[in-house]
Design brief:
Length: 366
């Protein structure tokens, strides 16, 4: 492993829709700062940070400075100390005069500076082939510079998954029973609902294992969809409509629940670290690319047939659904616990990113 001192990072995030762009960027910045790096987060819509990371905007988080990025209106680049590493989250396209201003070809210590595109998460096979590839700029003011692709993923040959250094310690100190008491004791299973509009949700409400469930439904799209499902809910169920909470509190909810319905990218990763039974709704794409992505994930997870059928249906594909009883739910939990162990045995995304940047800086040219 190449060594890396404290570097200055500029991380750029364009909030397209939903909360995942801000969520992933914030987790990355926080973890970089926790590893002794100095970080500026440039974000064009910091609103989700007000609840996701309550202290980030007032006073800031140690090691992270949040700055407004006027992405929609061309603005001259800021006059600031240059960065050692520039990260474009999800190909958000930083204007070239900003790249020139913030990222000179070489840092003050003579090492090449590093420009990265942090990509979306996928279990598809091409991710291993594409992770770490260079993308040389062939024209314009940045000609001769190279941007590098960094792909998160589920295998050692990818960029890995975001995981806090203190995750295991926090989980060991966490008492799910205390959490449940604090959230209104209930003796049925607890289900966290953070989804878009999954076609199979009404079906799920009727399953034998969930007749007495306590459904914790997240604000926004999940609650709007939930409102239409009320007639399908068994009388024995209980519902709590939750307010948006900080990422740490959201993580704890997933640790405390028996079944986590998650969506997009970041909450899937959190469900994997929780190690509880889960169903994942992928961000729906018009060309059904999410179905291919789901299949790749199910293959990687070696998903048992019942769980795979529910996952497919949850994502708008048809599959004969086995009843979800206590035994089936326990099987899902066992699979999730195994996946968690498999992933914990790998380096985190942060470690791989620091190693990658160190190796690029050690190379003779960008
Ligand atoms: O919000 P999302 O649907 O984001 C999506 C995906 O990232 C998708 O890949 C992307 O293409 C699309 O946006 C534009 O789901 P995701 O990724 O799980 O992000 C949600 C974030 O919100 C995550 O960081 C957890 C956080 N969160 C909280 O911090 N508190 C809460 O109360 C809730 C419900 C979520």
């Amino acid at each position: 492993m190449a060594s890396l001192g404290a570097l200055r990072w500029d991380v750029f995030c364009h909030v397209v829709d939903n909360w995942g762009d801000a969520g992933v960027a914030w987790r990355l910045c926080r973890q970089l700062a926790g590893a002794g790096q100095r970080v500026r987060l440039w974000i064009d819509d910091p609103a989700p940070l007000t609840w996701m990371a309550p202290r980030a905007l007032e006073g800031g988080h140690p090691g992270v400075e949040v700055r407004a990025w006027p992405r929609a209106t061309p603005a001259p680049p800021p006059v600031l100390p240059a960065a050692d590493v520039l990260v474009e989250a999800f190909g958000c396209h930083i204007p070239q005069d900003w790249v020139q201003a913030l990222l000179p070809p070489r840092a003050a210590d003579g090492a090449p500076t590093v420009w990265l595109n942090l990509e979306y998460l996928s279990a598809e096979a091409w991710v291993e082939r594409s992770h770490g590839l260079p993308s040389p700029v062939l024209h314009g003011a940045l000609q001769g510079r190279t941007k590098w692709f960094f792909f998160p993923g589920f295998t050692p040959a990818t960029g890995g998954l975001l995981r806090e250094a203190d995750l295991l310690a926090r989980q060991a100190a966490f008492d799910p029973q205390d959490w449940r008491r604090a959230h209104g004791a209930h003796d049925g299973p607890w289900v966290s609902v953070f989804t878009y509009e999954p076609p199979a949700l009404a079906e799920l409400l009727r399953q034998p294992a969930l007749q007495r469930a306590h459904w914790m439904v997240a604000a926004g799209r999940s609650q709007a969809h939930w409102a239409q499902l009320a007639p399908a809910l068994p009388a024995t169920a209980r519902v709590t409509l939750t307010q948006p909470v900080s990422q740490d509190a959201f993580d704890e909810r997933l640790w405390a629940c028996d079944l986590n319905l998650v969506r997009g990218e970041d909450s899937l990763v959190r469900a994997l670290w929780a190690g509880q039974a889960f169903l994942w709704q992928l961000y729906p794409q018009d060309d059904h690319a999410h179905h291919t992505k789901l299949q790749a994930f199910l293959d990687w997870a070696q998903a048992p047939a019942g769980w795979a059928a529910w996952m497919r249906t949850f994502n708008g594909m048809t599959a004969p659904l086995p009843p979800l009883d206590a035994r089936e739910l326990a099987c899902w939990r066992e699979v999730a616990a195994d996946l968690r162990q498999r992933l914990l045995a790998q380096d985190s995304l942060l470690q791989r990113l620091l190693d990658f940047v160190a190796s690029r800086r050690a190379a003779s040219s960008t």
